[in-house]
Amino acid sequence: MRIDFISLFPEFFDAFFSHSIIKRAISSGLLDMAVTNPRNFSHNKHQQVDDTPYGGGTGMLMMAPPIFEAVEHVITHKATHRRIVFLGPAGERFTQDKAKELATYDQLVLVCGHYEGIDYRVEEHLVDETISIGDFVVTGGELPAMVVADAVARMIPGVLGAPTGSAEDSFYKPILECPQYTKPPEYRGWTVPDVLRSGHHANIATWRLEEAIKRTIQLRPDLLERELSNEEYKIVKRLREKK
């Protein structure tokens, strides 16, 4: 899969490309990532990419032409299935399901806004959709784009190494991840639950599901407002009856 970032600040992505899972995925050929700067497509000797908004108002807006041309430049790469996304506060909220969907494309182009926003013609005529990572405002689209790219990368087979790695994450299924422990078995009087050290795989699986549901009830009960499996329903019913 190829992921292109359209950003005025390519240096923001240096650490993202150079560490951890993303670095390994790029090195192994599972991912191809690149940043393209819209300034390179400005037809102005000062490489201007922003201007004042029509109708007045504070701040500056990113101009449409450099963004259009930057995106058109990167989509020359061979891809039969492509999605162009703008990261902005007015978009659909990003979810794990959206990450799974975006991971099915051959190429993902993530357009990062800056200043007070972008010329609306970019959203209206260039991108396929606008995505927001939450109900808050950040300085630019670079951090949201990296969040989206990281979540999408985890959905690509082989990126996490273990075949079931991403399936065990919180939100892969509409439920939070269960508590997890590692050595030592006891620390400052706090011990790892006996079931996890029992070696009984069926009991461990049951414990993990129950603890995940317990955590979800406490922290994100909205995730359980859906059709539950028989096993989930029995656990939810039992936990709620205990209250």
Automatic annotation (TrEMBL):
The keyword Nucleus does not apply. Residues 1-225 form the tRNA methyltransferase TRMD/TRM10-type domain. It comes from the Bacteria. The keyword tRNA processing applies. Homodimer. Belongs to the RNA methyltransferase TrmD family. This is tRNA (guanine-N(1)-)-methyltransferase. It comes from Veillonella montpellierensis DNF00314.
